[in-house]
Design goal:
single chain, eight-stranded mixed sheet, 2,3-Dihydroxybiphenyl 1,2-Dioxygenase, domain 1, about 300 residues, 6 helices
């Protein structure tokens, strides 16, 4: 069985107080815990203890976490990762606040990813008994949940192969140079039924492009854009839509310079979903369908 879903993003920020204001007041996540220069946040429609960890001291990605179904899955992944030639180690319960034991892996792109079966369960704001459809308590954009992340790799095809062969991910879409000589520029990978849980584009190893939050529809995306203007959030691109994944989107920066996204739409995938291919000459349309242009910051700014 494949990985269940993306579980958390752990990133660095230059000023923890500024970051807390952005992620709680503007985006609407709740601060669950704070210790040792770190803050743990969750969105109103997430069950587990946290989905975002922010650590003071710089910018960029510390690690990603993915939740898996069973201990047997962890053991199977560990064996397959070893055969692939990547490095991994077991992690103990308590190494991460509220997270159980698991497996820590260094990707071919030098990113650290952790796989675990258990996290402390807190529940959503609306509960599971006769729940309301949304939380009246969530401020700001009231993001629903962590949706996906996009990382950079010098060899996206190698990272794609790692996730396919070791972790049973599938490729929903792929951006290539030329069908006659198809070098992979970007790949969009999924483990459940979303358009993507992780994307990888060509760039410097170890770098982060963005992580994204789910919103319900286009109206919520537009409302988020209004809030970004009210709070003087630096917007990179949007509101607009993607050709790749068909998502509606705004990209923006947190006070430290890490890129975030609010995202809605997309399509349903599955194990039999055929990979959609985009060519480099249509990259503008694939990435930003309406303008059909990609700005300089979007392809050059990583943290």
């Amino acid at each position: 069985m494949s990985v269940n879903r993306i579980g958390y993003v752990h990133a660095r920020v230059t000023d923890l107080d500024e970051a807390i204001s952005h992620y709680s007041n503007t985006l609407g996540q709740t601060v669950i815990a704070q210790e040792d220069g770190k803050v743990y946040l969750k969105a109103w429609d997430e069950f587990d203890h946290h989905s975002v960890v922010l650590e003071e001291g710089g910018v960029g990605l510390v690690k990603l976490g993915f939740k898996v179904h069973t201990e047997d899955d962890l053991a199977d992944f560990e064996n397959r990762i070893s055969r692939f030639g990547a490095s991994s180690e077991r992690m103990s319960k308590g190494e991460n606040l509220a997270v159980g034991a698991g497996l820590r892996v260094v990707l071919p792109s030098e990113h650290v990813v952790e796989f675990y079966t258990d996290m402390e369960f807190l529940g959503t704001d609306t509960g599971t008994l006769n729940p309301d459809p949304w939380s009246r308590r969530a401020p700001g954009a009231a993001v629903h949940r962590l949706d996906h992340a996009l990382i950079a790799a010098e060899d996206p095809a190698l990272v794609e192969r790692f996730f396919q062969e070791c972790l049973d991910f599938h490729t929903s879409e792929r951006l290539i140079t030329d069908p006659a000589d198809p070098e992979v520029i970007g790949t969009w990978l999924f483990c459940g039924q979303k358009a993507h849980d992780l994307a990888v584009i060509k760039g410097e190893n170890g770098k982060l492009h963005h992580w994204a939050y789910w919103l319900e529809d286009w109206n919520e995306v537009l409302r988020a854009g209004d809030l970004f203007a009210m709070d003087d959030v630096s917007v990179d691109v949007g509101p607009t839509r993607h050709g790749i994944t068909r998502g509606k989107t705004i990209y923006f920066f947190d006070p430290s310079g890490n890129r975030n996204e609010v995202f809605s739409g997309g399509y349903i995938t599955g194990a039999d979903f055929p990979t959609i291919t985009w060519t480099a000459d249509q990259a503008g349309k694939g990435i930003f369908y309406i303008s059909r242009e990609v700005n300089d910051t979007f392809t050059t700014v990583f943290t």
